[in-house]
Amino acid sequence: MILKNQKKMDCDQPSLEEQRERVDNVIVTAMEDLDREYLRKLQIEMHACATACCADADANAEAVERCVDRCQLPLTRARCFVQQGISEFENRLEKCIQQCRGSADCHLEERCSSNCVDSHVGLLPEMLRAMRDTLEKGV
User: N or C: which end of the chain has fewer CB within 10 A?
Assistant: First the structure.
């Protein structure tokens, strides 16, 4: 996900790989948690709603299609909200890392990048809490 375009250095390359894996793991875990806690519930509601639309024997095909489309909106909005939040997190982290580049000392550059990862990963729980609050209220 993030850090994949970071230039190779003659220093400790495994450190950069470890940072990338750490960020990727944190993001994947966050996405899985949000999926289990909120998005799947919305998906269940969407399918129940769509089933009710299709069960309406008096509705014509166009009305059923409009009904099903309306059923999908809450899940679509929630997924977009989550993806936007994750993308913004990744963009902020990448900007921080970009500012580290160009140091004459590759160890300083690595330390700066590592500090960016540490600080941003540290901010993730608060960001997820805010996302959960918004998802609970409905996007």
Answer: N
